[in-house]
Amino acid sequence: MAKKLSRCDACGRAFRPCRYNKHDQKYCLAPECVLERKRKRQRRFYNHRYRDDPEFRESERARAAEGNRRRRAAAKARKPACEDSGGSSAGENIHYLITGFVSHLAQSDDPAIIGSLMSGYTDRGRRLAAVPGERPRPG
Predict the structure, then answer these.
(1) For a pLDDT cut of 90, what percent of the chain falls above it?
(2) Cβ contacts of residue 8 below 8 Å, gap of 6+?
(3) Distance CA 104, CA 85 (A)
(4) Residues 105/114, Cβ–Cβ less than 8 Å
(5) What is the mean pLDDT of the chain?
(6) What's the pTM?
(7) How far apart are CA 29 and CA 37, in angstroms?
(8) Which residues of 14-39 are buried (b: 16+ CB within 10 A; e: fewer)?
(9) Of 2, 13, 55, 100, which residue is the least packed, with the fewest Cβ within 10 Å?
(10) What count of other Cβ atoms lies within 10 Å of the Cβ of residue 11?
(11) Kindly report the CA angle at 119 between 116 and 125, in degrees rounded to 5?
(12) Domain ranges of the chain
């Protein structure tokens, strides 16, 4: 009569358990199954310690919070200050928007013409925005 082989809990393959530990062995000796067994054992230990040890729990919360702060600061540092892509708002690129609009209205790409038109529009905007009875700012 053939001996019944055990099935690995990680990969499901049949394996021959160690003769000294066959009543407890649940994983085969394949490297990925050994790693899976180690991961589960470490996760179980960590969860028990986190649940039962208040000092460990607080230190882990502080460690995770500090990691999150560092990650957010690094992401913020990587983000460019001004993006020309469609992802940024029109308020951040208002100068480019107005220059393009004036260029379109003037039907010109000449920077001198566009600059003089924008200067005139700026003066006109100041006059229109001035509160009655208040002196317009020089500029």
Answers:
(1) 46
(2) 14, 15, 26, 27, 28, 30, 33
(3) 20
(4) no
(5) 85
(6) 0.48
(7) 10
(8) ebebeeeeeeebebbeeeebeebbee
(9) 2
(10) 13
(11) 145
(12) 7-78, 94-126
Structure tokens at 6: 């055990």
Return the residue matching tokens 């019944």: 4
Contact at 8 Å (CB) between 102 and 121?
yes
- The CA–CA distances, whole Å, from 120 to 86, 102, 125, 131 equal 29, 11, 9, 19
How far apart, in whole angstroms, are the C-alpha atoms of residue 112 and residue 71?
46
**What is the per-residue pLDDT across 30-40, written as a single tens digit (0 to 9) for each?**
999 999 999 99
**Residue by residue, what is the 3-state secondary structure of the chain?**
CCCCCEECCCCCCEECCCCCCCCCCCCCCCHHHHHHHHHHHHHHHHHHHHHHCHHHHHHHHHHHHHHHHHHHHHHHHHCCCCCCCCCCCCCCCHHHHHHHHHHHHHCCCCHHHHHHHHHHHHHHHHHHHCCCCCCCCCC
For 106-126, b/e burial (b = at least 16 CB within 10 A) is eeeeeeeebeebbeeeeeeee
